[in-house]
Specification:
Length: 319
């Protein structure tokens, strides 16, 4: 079989996606790539690992040739809050990295998965039940790079017949790898702090509603989309997908059901609050459901049970 390459394999989604892909397709068939961060022992020891800079065509090409790559999950990217602190770097990594990968895909016949985000929407987008096809004028650099990425992937499909596919992910929550520098990170931190201190200080306002998804659903979504019948895909590169939406107040309430003396208070970070306020409350993901059978498994209560159970084991803390 043609092999699979995962860029950003040391990141939040990549570190888990790589292991799931190895289980499904065989350890030696999935090549993990990182840039600067060291991989975990599990990632390094379960299959091939290479260091590369996804912006560098020649470095990606060397790995694609070496392993005869047929599918690229291109996850190397900066998240929204870091993107606001370093907008030029966000453009460079998120867009120039994608361009290099798309060019490789064009020249070597690879298919490409690229994640987009709720960040691809902006304040002029309808906030409730955000449609699949709607206004996209994001006001964060992260969002600018995500819209550019969606359109680039469409272009490579239309112009060069590259099999590009993608999802607009909401905030992703997991007990394995922490996210780095996103606006939705609070929904991961809150579980750590609930177990460690029974108290969490949230950087978003109590009533800030955002779409979210538990990691197992996020991984299934990517793999199911890449395996879907291409004839049925009308919205190849930017499917809205969501599993739940909640506010900080509501996630705190769900945790309180399990840890009754848990408390939340608020110290608002204006940058991340501004980003969150520009994003949808909840997306309409009916196109993904219809075109390739998207169906999430975890809601807030089920995710909270699983997060607390697994994190308490990981941190060796009882609740
Ligand atoms: N989780 C991302 C962020 O907060 C959104 O896609 O930046």
């Amino acid at each position: 079989m043609k092999k699979i390459l995962v860029t950003g394999a040391v990141g939040q989604i990549g570190s888990e996606l790589t292991l799931v892909l190895r289980k499904k397709y065989g350890n030696d068939n999935v090549i993990a790539c990182g840039h600067s961060k060291q991989p975990s022992d599990e990632l390094k020891n379960s299959g091939p690992f290479e260091f590369l800079d996804a912006r560098n065509y020649a470095e990606v090409e060397t790995v694609v040739k070496k392993y005869d790559i047929g599918v690229i999950y291109h996850l190397a990217a900066l998240l929204s809050a870091v993107g606001e602190a370093k907008p030029q770097l966000a453009w460079d990594i998120n867009v120039n990295g994608l361009v290099a990968v798309l060019e490789i895909a064009r020249n070597y016949g690879c298919s490409v998965f690229t994640p987009s985000s709720i960040g691809a929407f902006g304040p002029s987008t309808p906030k409730k039940n955000t449609p699949q096809d709607t206004i996209q004028r994001p006001t964060s650099m992260y969002g600018v790079t995500k819209v550019a990425g969606e359109i680039l992937c469409d272009y490579y499909f239309l112009k060069f017949k590259v099999d590009t596919r993608g999802l607009r992910y909401p905030g992703i929550i997991s007990y394995v790898s922490p996210p780095g520098g996103g606006t939705t990170d609070y929904a991961v931190d809150i579980y750590y702090k609930a177990l460690e201190n029974k108290k969490y200080t949230c950087f978003l306002k109590a009533d800030t509603r955002l779409d979210m998804m538990y990691m197992p659903d996020a991984l299934n979504a990517a793999i199911n989309l890449m395996e879907a019948d291409p004839a049925k895909l009308k919205h190849r590169n930017a499917f809205n997908v969501t599993a739940m939406n909640f506010t900080p107040e509501q996630i705190a309430k769900a945790i309180k059901k399990k840890i009754p003396d848990f408390k939340i208070d608020y110290e608002i970070d204006p940058v991340r609050q501004g980003i969150a306020d520009s994003w949808p409350d909840n997306m309409d993901d009916s196109a993904a459901r219809k075109e390739w059978g998207w169906k999430p498994e975890y809601d807030l209560a089920k995710m909270t049970d699983d997060m607390l159970l697994n994190l308490s084991k990981k941190l060796n803390l009882k609740y």
